[in-house]
Design goal:
alpha/beta, Hypothetical Protein Yjia, Chain: A,domain 2, 2 domains, 12 helices, 31% helix
């Protein structure tokens, strides 16, 4: 792990995911009709799926639809990385309008992690696109059952920066409150937006990333959202549910996939760089499949500036050195969302490696 300065990309990427029938397409369709979604490129699997209103279509070719609202829609034919690279080249050549945001819609059964890996691992994409937000739709009427039965639904909720509870016009208040509590237990850092017919203002969905291109600055507080974890019990997570009857409890028990734990590690003392590197590499190498998402701000011994980390499963962004500590708070704060990996194991491994680093001589400073 080396220290790299962050690039200054002007294009932010949001991932729109959610289980089958959860309302992704309805939400996207409504967004595309809004004039404030201009300068946005959307990557979809099929144009027919989103049912674009022909009165909004300005020009059409084999793989692209231009809308009068300023949105650009591209059908992904094969590899996502190639589609993004080709789209960027068209932008540079002036063949398409200069978009500043990309929204990628996944299929209903998609695990978001491989798509995030693509954005992190491809050097061409990493230098031109910056991950902003993962937006997950959850059906207000069927969401609890889907979280019980389908691992994909749990992962989609766990990695989200924003959760949109859809079809709220079809569910009663008690059911929506129970689903909201369940989602908050899985991912307390993600605000839950309730919507009917996909009606959500874009500003409520986007702007969740670390980097803010409009201000050319970093928003650690908004991105980390650590206040959502305050006061939570160390092992308060999605394993504990209450069902209305014994039959439902028995039926769900065999299918439940949400052994997901969300927590924020806080350290007041600085961490030795060798210990931190060894810790992260150990977690990624041996338990990467259990690390659904990791993000944080770290106080490294001998460093006056904070270090920001962000990872998904086996992949970690190059760490970023910020110019200053937000609000002067120099504590290390790392948010973990894990599956099948307990908080105590993560904490203990850091303590062991940090003690080993203290015992060594000739410790190398942070590059």
């Amino acid at each position: 792990m080396t220290m790299l300065e962050v690039a200054d990309p002007t294009i932010v990427v949001s991932l729109l995911t959610g289980f089958l029938g959860s309302g992704k397409t309805t939400l996207l369709n409504r967004l595309l009709k809004r004039s404030d979604m201009g300068e946005t490129a959307v990557l979809v699997n099929e144009f027919g799926d989103i049912g674009i209103d022909h009165s909004l279509v300005e020009t059409v070719d084999e793989s692209m639809v231009m809308l009068t609202t300023g949105c650009l829609c591209c059908a992904v034919q094969g590899d996502l990385a190639r589609a993004l690279r080709e789209l960027f080249i068209r932008r540079v050549k002036g063949l398409v309008p200069e978009f500043r945001r990309v929204v990628i819609e996944t299929t209903g059964l998609a695990d978001p992690a491989p798509i995030l890996h693509t954005l992190l691992n491809d050097p061409v994409l990493a230098n031109r696109f910056q991950l902003d937000s993962v937006i997950t739709t959850v059906d207000a009427t069927h969401g609890r059952g889907q979280l019980d039965r389908h691992l994909e639904a749990c992962k989609q909720a766990a990695v989200a920066d924003r959760i949109v509870m859809t079809k709220t016009d079809l569910a009663d208040a008690a059911a929506m409150d129970a689903l909201a509590a369940r989602l908050d237990a899985i991912n307390p850092g993600a605000p839950i937006i309730r919507a009917a017919h996909g009606d959500v203002a874009p500003e409520r969905l986007f702007g969740a990333g670390l980097y803010r291109p409009e201000t050319r600055s970093f928003d650690v507080q908004g991105w980390l959202h650590e206040e959502a974890f305050r006061g939570r019990a160390p092992h308060e997570h999605g394993l504990h549910h209450h069902h209305d009857n014994a039959h439902e409890e028995h039926d769900h028990a065999a299918h439940r996939h949400d052994d997901i734990e969300a927590f924020c590690l806080v350290r007041h003392e600085a961490i030795e760089w060798p210990a931190f590197v060894a810790w992260m590499q150990t977690l990624i190498t041996h338990r990467g499949e259990n690390l659904l998402r990791v993000k944080g701000i770290v106080n490294i011994t001998g460093e006056s500036q904070p270090i920001v980390i962000h990872g998904v499963q086996h992949v970690l962004y190059p760490p970023v050195r910020l110019t200053r500590w937000p609000n002067g708070d120099r504590r290390t704060r790392i948010v973990f969302i894990t599956r099948g990996l307990e908080r105590r194991i993560v904490e203990n491994s850091l303590e062991i490696l940090q003690q080993a680093a203290r015992d060594q001589t000739g410790v190398q400073p942070l590059p």
